[in-house]
Model the fold of this input.
Amino acid sequence: MAEPFHIVRIVSDERGETHFSDMEIPLEARGAIGALSDPFLTKGRLLFRQTPADYDFTWHNAPERQLIVCLDADVEVTVSDGERRVIRAGEIFSVEDVTGRGHISRAVDGKTRRSLFIPY
Done:
């Protein structure tokens, strides 16, 4: 069996505080084409985004649940319980905090970041 995809989640609890959670998407070997996951249902949209090198966005909520794929730069994310994580280029995270206090996101190392947003 192949290594699962690791996804960092940002979730809100019943008090509106936000926390990180970790999720793994299992993969199953499918012969010569490699390993695949089961289908992940999305809303059928894909957004491309570029954030400036000085990006520093204070507390905000996700407009909807979405997967974010960091393509070429890192982002630092802080949730309301105080935990801070850096999501690296090539990694995926899921923003699910559509209510509550939200999260902070900042550019890392003064780099412009390009990413894909996949609402689900």
About this structure: Residues 19 and 83 are 8 Å apart (CA to CA).
